[in-house]
Amino acid sequence: MKIAIGSDHAAFSLKKILKEHIREKGLGEVVDMGTDTDSTPSDYPDIAFRVGEAVAAGTADRGVLLCGTGVGMSIAANKIPGAYAAHCHDVETAKLSRRHNNSNILTMGARIIGAPLAEKILDAWLAASFEGGRHAIRTGKIEACENKICPACRPSKHGRTVIFDHPLVQHKVSIIRDKNTPVKTFRELVQEIAGLMVYESTRNLPLVKVKVETPLTETEAYALEGKKLAIVPVLRAGLGMVDGILQIVPNAKVGHIGLYRDPETLNPVEYYCKLPGDISERDIFILDPMLATGGSASAAISLVKEKGGKKISLVSIIAAPEGVARVHEDHPDVDIFTAALDSHLDKNGYIVPGLGDAGDRLFGTK
Which one of the listed residues 21, 89, 100, 166 is annotated catalytic? Predict the structure, then answer.
């Protein structure tokens, strides 16, 4: 079990004690997420957000947060969708927070309870298991509320469909839908939309702490862990999204998948596949601006998986319900990010209302 632990300056001493307690009893692997000293005041929300995001994203199995009372840490951590922090001051509360509420973060107050009791509370909390049943119905309602409020914010082990409703994205989508928009403008806007979408689609990339020397002093900052990203456009229309994303993540490696849709069967036909050699180690974003039947996107995802890809997301601009259903059926582990979910497909497999053939409009071939 990987346990992310964090504290502010007021609870720094208790954090040191609990870290050693976890190690001595073999309760799990400890990941310290700050603060690093009790001599400099720190803001508890900063620490709570780090631990909350790690637990919600699955990079840590459980989290422990400590401050003077434990209350501030609990309030802050619970702002992260997927983080369920329980503020506990006795053993029984700790047990029930796991059994009935499926809490994944424990918060305690260093000025409220002593180290011996904190150790007992931690032991009980780590040992307890979620009972499910009627409690799962209740926790499920909390998850549903989170998904309704901000579907892009909540990491998940199952595939999600995230629709970007940001005004800038929707404004630009309206322009590219217009049949009178010229090729140059269409091409520029597709890049801009892809660039805007990448902010949310990369929200849960893991970070590591680094030291940075500013003009005034040395400080703690964060960098992408390993910077191992790959973007894989589906030829040819996916090429129109590449530059917009590379402007945001210029170190990403670029693979290519060539597929075309058979006009009779509407099934995808592969003609090219070239991916980075270390694709299994990368977070992968497959780019296909139009998710219509889902056949090409599903085939592209299958190809990437055959080459060893594991962490895969699909980024589209316009999607049809039929395509979304197909991808989630074939690849339930893949998230779909799109700027619009349209009505349906016509008899020719085009998205309605859609924007026509994205490849033709990008390259002026029709």
Answer: 100
